[in-house]
C-alpha cells in the first residue's frame, strides 16, 4: 500500500471511530454498525482528494480528538439547521464553532458548483441518480438529508487550512476544460469499489 493509500485508510478509520461516538436521537443508528458501506462511501470521496488536503483533514481529526471535539457529530449537527431548525437553534448552534460571513459565502459558492455537478450526473445516470440522496436543501425532511445539506454540514467542520485546500481543489476542477465533475469521479470510485468496471456497467445493473 502506498503512503497516500495508507493515509486515506487512516482517515476513514478515524472518521469511523468518531462516528461510533456520535449519539443519535432515538438511539444508535443502523448505519453505525455498517463498516463496509461506510468504508466504501468515504474512501470513494477521499480517492478524489490530493495528498495535501488529505493531510490537512487528518490533522483536523486529530486536533478534534485532542480538544474533545467530534467532527462527525458536528457535521450531523450542522445539517439539523435545515432538517430540525428548532433543535439546532436551541441545543447545537450555541456549542459548535461559528462560521464567519465570509466563510459561509465561500462555502455557498462551492456548494452551488457541486450541486450543479450532481444534477448533471443525475441527468446522465438516471438509475444511479435515483439511489443518491435528494439533491437540494429544499427537499430536506426531518428524516432525510439532501446532498446539498450534507455537503454544507461537512464543509462547516473543516479548519481554515483544510477549507482553503478544498476550495482550491473545486476551483481547479471547475476551471478545467472540460470541467472535472467531482460527483462523477466519486461515484466512479464508489462503483469500482463495489466491483464494477464503469459507471455504465453499474447503471445497467440497477434494478
Automatic annotation (TrEMBL):
This is DUF4125 domain-containing protein. It comes from Bifidobacterium oedipodis. InterPro entries: DUF4125. It comes from the Bacteria. Pfam families: DUF4125 (PF13526).
